[in-house]
Amino acid sequence: MNAQELESIIRAGLPCEHLHVEGDGRHWFATIVSAEFEGKRPIARHQRVYATLGEKMATDEVHALSMKTLTPGEWAAQQA
After folding, report:
1. Residue (of 24, 21, 25, 36) closest to 68 by Cα position
2. In this entry, which stretches build a coiled coil (predicted)?
3. Strand residue runs (E) in 1-80
4. Against a cut of 0.90, is the pTM above it?
5. pLDDT in the model for residue 58
């Protein structure tokens, strides 16, 4: 799997205003900005992303995914 494939999977299951994925093929880091994260705690946000990956996590196709999950407002504040 490459970064573009992983981005496509996440985008297919979660509407993202911004998404950036980087990694080495097994260990990944993603910055994900979605309005769906509004009002959710970090663990619920991560669970939502993991749900989009489904079997890819269970079969070890995606071995490790670290992520920064932000709402559009949080993202805008970081960019200012």
Report:
1. 21
2. none
3. 18-23, 27-33, 64-70
4. yes
5. 81
Q: What is the pLDDT of residues 26-65, one digit of tens each?
A: 889 999 999 999 999 999 999 999 999 988 888 888 888 9
Residue 50 domain flag: yes
**What pLDDT score was predicted for residue 63?**
85
Residue 59 domain boundaries: 3-74
Burial of residue 36, with CB atoms counted within 10 A of its CB: 0-12 exposed, 13-18 middle, 19 or more buried: middle
Helix (H) or strand (E) holding 11: helix 3-13
Cα(34)–Cα(75) distance, integer angstroms: 9
Question: Residue 28 has which token pair?
Answer: 């990944």
Give the CATH number of the domain where residue 37 resides.
3.30.300.90
> Does residue 53 belong to any structural domain of this protein?
yes
Q: How far is residue 25 from each of residues 30, 47, 64, 72, measured CA to CA in Å? A: 13, 21, 10, 28
Residue 48 lies in a domain: yes
